[in-house]
Design brief:
This protein has 116 residues and is an alpha+beta fold. It is built from one helix and seven strands. It has a single domain, classed as Roll (SH3 type barrels). A five-stranded antiparallel beta sheet has the order 5-4-3-6-7, with helices on one face. The radius of gyration is 16 Å and the shape is elongated. The N terminus is likely disordered.
């Protein structure tokens, strides 16, 4: 799996996955990193925290964003991009708001396309 990084315009992580090295054609998929705010540390020893957006709370792994300069205790209040239960990177609040607004617009577009 090769991570291509997130775009600055959307804050979305793009991950390319090659299914078979021997195949002449490759399969690529895109995965999304969803902005969430860390509201609590649930298990510091295992680097787990609770994130929230609009009242939806989930426990996630924080190991990818913790280091000596940014210990687990300092993560509360941070905005992060979450993918499959892991905080992949820290982002600023403005970037999180912009990305969440984009997701809301996409949801409205899907609703319009589904209506008769």
């Amino acid at each position: 799996m090769i991570c291509n990084g997130r775009t600055r315009q959307t804050g979305i992580w793009s991950t390319s996955v090659r299914i078979s090295r021997s195949s002449r054609s490759a399969f690529f998929a895109m995965c999304l990193g969803i902005p969430r705010q860390i509201v609590a540390i649930s298990d510091a020893d295992n680097m787990l925290g609770i994130v929230d957006v609009s009242g939806v709370r989930r426990e996630i792994h924080l190991a990818c964003i913790v280091d000596e300069a940014h210990p687990i205790q300092s993560c509360v209040g941070d905005w992060v991009l979450v993918h499959v239960g892991f905080a992949m990177s820290r982002i600023d609040e403005a970037e999180a708001a912009q990305t969440l607004a984009l997701f809301a617009e996409l949801g409205e577009l899907v609703d319009e396309l589904r209506s008769p």
